[in-house]
Amino acid sequence: MAEHAEHAAYPVGLRLSGRRVVVLGGGQVAQRRLPSLVAAGADVLLISPSAKPSVEAMADTGEIRWERRRYAPGDLADAWYALISTDDPEANAAASQEAEDRRVWCVRSDDAEAATAWTPATGRSEGVTVAVLTGRDPRRSAAVRDAIVEGLRDGTLAAPHHRARATGVALVGGGPGDPDLITVRGRRLLAEADVVIADRLGPRDLLAELPPHVEVIDAAKIPYGRFMAQEAINNALIEHARAGKSVVRLKGGDPYVFGRGMEELQALAEAGIPCTVVPGISSSISVPSAVGIPVTHRGVAQEFTVVSGHVAPDDERSTVDWSALARLRGTLVVLMGVENSGAIAATLIAHGRGADTPVAVVQEGTTAAQRRVDATLGTLGETVRAEGVRPPAVIVIGEVVAVHPTH
C-alpha cells in the first residue's frame, strides 16, 4: 500500500444501509464514529472486550451488536467496511491484513498509512453532507468542515436549490431580540426565503441581511399603536405560499409561547399549505438569563411559571388563576404585563404573596437597549411608572431575583 501514499484519496459516499460493518475496539474512536454508522443504517458489529459507557448503551438499546472479546481471524468475513481502533498493534495489523485480503475497505486509527480508507471530517446541514480530507492534517479538515457547514446553516454560503424546491410556510421563532440567538435552522430558512412576514419583536437586524429580491412585510402588532389583524397575517401567508413562494413568518421568541403560532398553523392547514414550525428561544427564560437571573436555582426555586399579563386580573377575559399563582413558592415570569403590572402585583399580594418579594423588570432584553429595573412586589406598579418602562419587557417575580454570582 505504501506505493499509493503519494496519490490523493478518492472521495466517495458509502451507502451502508443494511450492510455489515465491523468495528474493532470500543474506545474513544468508536464512541465518535458509531453514531454516524448507525445513522447511515449500517448493520454494525462491535468486537471488543470492553467499551465506553456511551458505546455500551448503544449495544443495550439494540443500535449495534456487541461481542465482548478480542479480534480473531475471520471477523471481517462478509463485511463491507471495517473500523480498526483497538489498543493492540498486532491485532490491528492482523485485522488490517485480513481486510486487504478480503477486499474490505478499512480505516485504522493507529496507522493511517496502513489503511485503505480515511475518514473525512464530516458535517451535515439540511440534506447536504460535507466531507473534507486534507491528507494528514485532521485539524485543518475539521476547520474547513466547520466553516462550510456554518456558512450553509446561516446562509452566508450560498447554495441555491437548482431543482424544484418545496414551497410553503415556515413559522420561525426568532428568539428574544439578539440576532445571534435565532436558531441555526431559522437563520438558514430566512436566507432561502422569498417572502418574510416579520413581527416587531423578531430579530429585526436579520432583515438587513436579506437579499434585495426578498419581499419583507411588516406584521408589527405594536402595543398602543396600529396593528395588522391576525386574519390579515393568515391571508398574507396563504396568498404568498399559493403563489409558489417560500415564506417565513418571523416571530419573536417561540411561535407557541404567546405567539399565536397555532392559529397560523391551523389557518395554513385549512388552506392546504404545508408548514414547518421552527422553535425559538423564549424570552421567558432568555431575558432573565441575559441580566443574570436564573429562573430556577437549587435551594431557592424548584419551579417557574410563565403567564401572560396582557389582560388585567380583574378582567372577565382573564383565564389566569392569580390566587393559585400567589400561593406558589417558585419563580413567576410575566410576559406582556407592563400596563397591568400594578394590578398584577396588588392581586398577588392580596392572595398571600409577600409585598417584599424581589422583582426585576427587564426591558428590551438581549438587545443593545436592554435595561433592568429592580423593585419589590409592593413597589412594582409605582416603579414601572416612575422609570418609564415600556414594552417589550419581562417581569420576573421571586427570590431568584436576589441571587448573585458571589452567593
Kindly summarize this structure in a few lines.
Helices cover 28% and strands 20% of the residues. The protein is of the alpha/beta class and 407 residues long.
| Helix content estimate | 25-40%
Query: Which regions contain 5 or more consecutive residues with pLDDT less than 50?
Result: 1-5, 221-227
The span between the termini is 62 Å
The description of the largest β-sheet is: 5 strands, parallel
- Give average pLDDT, whole number: 89
Report the portion of residues in β strands. Answer: 15-25%
Shape: elongated
What is the spatial order of strands in the main beta sheet? 3-2-1-4-5
Count the DSSP helices: 11
What is the helix/strand order? EHEHEEHEEEHEHEEHEHEHEHEHEEHE
Structure keywords:
alpha/beta, five-stranded parallel β-sheet, elongated, disordered N terminus
Account of the protein in words:
With 407 residues, the protein is of the alpha/beta class. A five-stranded parallel sheet has the order 3-2-1-4-5, with helices on both faces. A five-stranded parallel sheet has the order 10-9-11-8-12, sandwiched between helices. Strand 2, helix 2 and strand 3 form a beta-alpha-beta unit. The longest helix has 17 residues. The protein is elongated, with a radius of gyration of 28 Å.
